[in-house]
Known about the structure:
By secondary structure, the chain is mostly beta strands. It has one domain (8-52). Helices cover 0% and strands 55% of the residues. The protein contains no helices and five strands. It has strands spanning 8-11, 14-23, 28-34, 40-46, 50-52. Strands 4-3-2-1-5 form a five-stranded antiparallel beta sheet, with no helix packed on it. It is globular, with a radius of gyration of 10 Å. It holds the Pfam family DUF2158.
Amino acid sequence: MAIKAGDIVQLKTGGPRMSVGGILVNQEAMCYWFDDHDVFQQQQIFSAALVLAKDE
Length: 56
């Protein structure tokens, strides 16, 4: 299943749950999340490094 905008994902190695804002041309996902200090973060991450987050 392909990751798409609106999905909640995590890195395959673990980490915070992130919202996907969109998929870029080079198959990077624009991810958004709040860190442990409630600071908003954003990062482009290759889709191959992400999995859909399991429900909490």
